Amino acid sequence: MSILVRAPSNIALVKYMGKDSDASSGSAGPNVPTNGSLSMTLDSLCTLMEFRRVSGSSRFVAELPKLSGYTARVGSSAQAPSVPKLSQSGTERLLAHVERVRGALPVLLADLGGVSAGRDGWEIRSANTFPAASGIASSASSFAAVTLATALAGAADPARVKRALGDGFELRRRLARLSRQGSGSSCRSFEGSFVEWQGEDARAVKSAMPKLLDLVLVIGAEEKEVSSSQAHLRVKSSPLWEGRVSRVQSRLARLGPAISKGDFSDVAAIAWEELWEMHSLFHTASEPFTYWLPGSVKALRWAQAFRREAIVTMDAGPNVHFLVPESTRDLWLSRLREQFPHEEVLVDAQGSGAEVLSIEGGPS
Ligand code: PMV
Which residue of 71, 126, 246, 279 shows the fewest CB atoms closer than 10 Å? Predict the structure, then answer.
């Protein structure tokens, strides 16, 4: 039996930065955030993951004979997915999450046909559509994909689980809760187009926004010196940490309604404030650090003039994201190409969350 799923990345407008350590070591499991966050789900910037049943224990296999047939339009070209280079610890983290999800399946699937009787292992293959050196973080999309694939692979009736995914949001929300325990931001990749995550739960926000594109100005792609796990800890040493949670909550209280009303310039203003605040936390930690490269500063100074015309944001990395209405695509691409002729621009659109691409064969 084999299962093929796809899960997109997401880009936060109000950021998850900082974990609630008490809640994260309690019954809710790891990665309970100190504050809510809200993101836009992407579409073709995604992880593909294939599970193929094997005897013995589960393992991650690097080569990718079948998935290479899949192409996604990213930027101006059709992009063949590339196999992620997973370190030993990255592989262990992924396989530990497979076991976590497997352990939760009897409850998750209780009203969806239950779990399959066999305890076979799975050969796992995965690929990302992000160009290998694009600096796009893959943990959100890869953990969402592995959560979904494990749930299908362990189900007595995978086709029923697939149908339940399309029928409503209950199953997506339950999967998001589990996925969060593997990688926090992955819980926002199960729905679209805008998703708010508070505590243990992620759910879609009503939107009257125009259809948006995410134009990613790729400034650098080196391995991060400070991982996001480290950043979650270190921001708490900043003098700006005090008051952060209430500032974020009031930003979220403005952002949700602005998205629901389709108030683009308000959404852009909130995202702009939040980008500066998150990076200021990094810059003022007791041991300050930065993800910015000279090109990031140049892009931010230039973006200042357009901060109501584009929703500008950055993650824990050097790239600058410009979320713009699809109708302004050509204008924005020519602006960016003229201003940053040497940088690559990835073009993606808002999407609707993780999906099952195929199920072949049946459970034992
Ligand atoms: O999910 P993590 O632990 O990789 O943290 C992601 C943190 C940011 O990308 C910087 C912000 C966010 O909300 O996605």
Answer: 246
Check pocket membership of 195 for ligand 1, CB cut-off 6 A: no
pTM (global) more than 0.85:
yes
Do strands 59-60 and 121-128 pair parallel, antiparallel, or not at all (unpaired)? parallel
Mean of pLDDT values over 218-241 = 91
Region for residue 120 given its phi and psi (left: phi exceeds 0; alpha: psi -120 to 50; beta: otherwise): beta
CA of 212 to the centre of ligand 1 (A): 21
116 CB near ligand 1 (under 6 Å): no
N- to C-terminal Cα separation, the chain: 9
Residue range 107-114: mean pLDDT, rounded: 96
Say yes or no: CB of residue 58 within 6 Å of ligand 1: no
CA of 1 to the centre of ligand 1 (A): 34
The helix/strand/coil state of 129 is coil
pLDDT of residue 60: 78
